[in-house]
């Protein structure tokens, strides 16, 4: 033989059915559907999301209709591409490796749909999204009157898509690698041991910078009502706590005892400590700061007879069980997501389906979080629903009557 035979890329069982590029596409499209549902339901209970994010009002149709239209437009070719991929590959490993053009073509279509100025595909909404994305990516943060809340909301959503962004890079890197295929088993070391962790950390960097910008704005225009900005520093610390988790994960993935001062077991214990800190700090912030609930407040405030235990006086979601359920779900998924934020976990198992499930669950958690975060912001601006507003319980009752 003239040389060694080329090593064929490995294909795991889950990638035979759903290769990495399709997983990335599915989660992105599901996120658009989820945003449409957020807009739709919040509109039904008279919370004006576009006003909060300073999005221009519309006369012809509601914003959620155009979001649904965009999601539908993206879903049809995705389903068609998947069905065609399954038809031509039929679970054959060689065929899966050979037909990477199908999922990659859809990813290209997905990008073009956001960039091309097509009027019937929620053009104004896409342009608003791209402008906001560009602003926050360059380290900016709009003023309150220009849509600061929208920038913060988008940056928080990006933190939930951190692992998806990493997978998008991996899929692209594998496409450009002549020795493998983007439909093979994901190589999350593609591009080097630390490039994927760096990409995963970018959303937290963006949000951290936003917190620091808010802090310096408060310091520059300090008043009695705004305080000294300590809450923004505390919020920045929350996002900073994600970096040790990501860094220690990368060190575990490429562990070299000759270059490390810690044993592998010690490194793992240190990583577990920071996972615990990040998970519980983030959960506390969700409940106490993002949702303004009194669960972690003083006993007097938590047991105030004017509202259900651990909640708050002004609420648009009338049923207290809705809040309690959201708290429990957020706690469970916060802990799970912190583990899956770690790129080294796939080193210990090849359960690509499990990783995909965790990413889906994080989209679910963020979808739920948005309902309560937007409701909280609306309450802060309007001090609760007016007497003629439809509350969640009232709306459900009306549905039962119809």
UniProtKB/TrEMBL annotation:
Superkingdom of the source species: Eukaryota
Transmembrane segments: 20-45, 66-89, 101-118, 267-285
Protein location: Membrane
Pfam family, one: EXS
Domain EXS: 187-402
Membrane topology of the entry: Multi-pass membrane protein
Residues annotated as signal peptide: none
Cellular component annotations (GO), alphabetically ordered: cytoplasm; membrane
PROSITE patterns: EXS (PS51380)
Designated name of the protein: EXS domain-containing protein
Keywords: Membrane, Transmembrane, Transmembrane helix
